């Protein structure tokens, strides 16, 4: 897992394979290899969880990302909002537009 880009590529490949649990294992091992996950790493994990309809996990990752002052991309938000809408959870989708959420961005 020599570099951050290599680890991110591995996480992305696992996301495409819809393997969020394995992707999280890679993520958890990154610090042991001296790698600090970046916004791209977190966004990829969020998309991976959304593809498996694990929206609670995706939201927890987003919260962690925001708490650690990493800025999610517009694509990450779009993926989350679309996933909540497909699941029929409109209130959760609209929560991303709330001023209280956006003040943390």
Element-by-element helix/strand order: HHHHHHH
* SSE class: mainly alpha
CATH superfamily: Tetratricopeptide repeat domain
CATH-scheme architecture: Alpha Horseshoe
Tell me the CATH topology: Serine Threonine Protein Phosphatase 5, Tetratricopeptide repeat
Distinct helical segment count:
7
InterPro entries: PPR_rpt, TPR-like_helical_dom_sf
Protein name: Pentacotripeptide-repeat region of PRORP domain-containing protein
Keywords: Repeat
Family: Belongs to the PPR family. P subfamily.
In short:
With 105 residues, the chain is mostly helical. The chain has 7 helices and no strands. Pfam families: PPR_1.
Explain how this protein is built.
- There is one protein chain.
- The protein has one domain (4-102): Serine Threonine Protein Phosphatase 5, Tetratricopeptide repeat, CATH 1.25.40.
- The protein is 69% helix and 0% strand.
- The chain has seven helices and no strands.
- It has helices at residues 4-16, 20-29, 39-51, 55-67, 74-86, 90-95, 99-102.
- Helix 1 packs parallel to helix 3 (39-51) and helix 3 packs antiparallel against helix 4 (55-67).
- It is globular, with a radius of gyration of 14 Å.
- The protein starts with a helix and ends with a helix.
